[in-house]
Design a protein that fits this description.
Layout (H helix, E strand, L loop, with lengths): L6 H18 L7 H15 L13 H21 L4 H18 L3 H6 L3 H31 L6 H42 L1
Helix pairs in contact: 1-2, 3-4, 3-6, 4-7, 6-7
Length: about 190
């Protein structure tokens, strides 16, 4: 069935119909089967190849839905981890910023148009934050066996600070995108009123 609808068959069929037309006008004569088959074959040979359909990837808003579910898993994991008060406060601030970026509404609509932003947010939720916390938990255990080294709390605090800066840059970029959109609309309305 796929070949019946293919470009090769359709163009070959057009060639075969031309061959039948030549037969009925008397041009093909006794060799009409060879003419019809030859024109069909020529049409099938010169037809452009079939293009495969592009892959159907999920749209960015579907990726955001998956990311929200992963963020809930991350929040459940973080609730079970015991952290020092300073790191716990910074982690709470980071989680609130991530939650604000993932909340359904106009922010996620703007984010859904920014593949780089979704990638950055996905990396924060799925890799960077869990790895920072898990590394702290494992390093803290080893630090008890070999005291005198730099405390893992310091590294965790720096890591969370860097991750919070990254999330803040994303939020700032989204806000600037909306500000540009508003300015563009204002200019459009001003130009329209002239």
């Amino acid at each position: 069935m796929r070949y019946v609808e293919s470009r090769k068959n359709l163009l070959g069929s057009v060639g075969g119909i031309v061959g039948l037309g030549l037969t009925f006008t008397g041009v093909a004569g006794a060799y009409w089967p060879v003419v019809v088959a030859g024109l069909y074959g020529a049409g099938a040979l010169i037809a452009p190849p079939e293009r495969p359909a592009p892959p159907d990837f999920p749209d960015l808003s579907a990726q955001l839905d998956e990311l929200r579910a992963d963020f809930e898993k991350l929040r459940a994991y973080l609730a079970d981890v015991e952290l020092p008060p300073a790191a716990s406060g910074r982690l709470t601030e980071l989680a609130e910023l991530l939650m604000a970026l993932l909340d359904p509404g106009w922010v996620s609509e703007v984010l859904a148009q920014d593949p780089e932003g979704i990638h950055m947010l996905s990396r924060l939720v799925r890799q960077d934050v869990p790895e920072a916390v898990d590394t702290f938990v494992r390093t803290r255990w080893w630090n008890r066996l070999a005291p005198g080294q730099e405390p893992p709390e310091r590294h965790l605090d720096r890591q969370l600070g860097l991750l919070q800066d990254e999330a803040s840059r994303l939020a700032t970029a989204l806000r600037e995108t909306e500000a540009r959109r508003q300015e563009t609309h204002t200019r459009y309305l001003e130009d329209r009123s002239k």
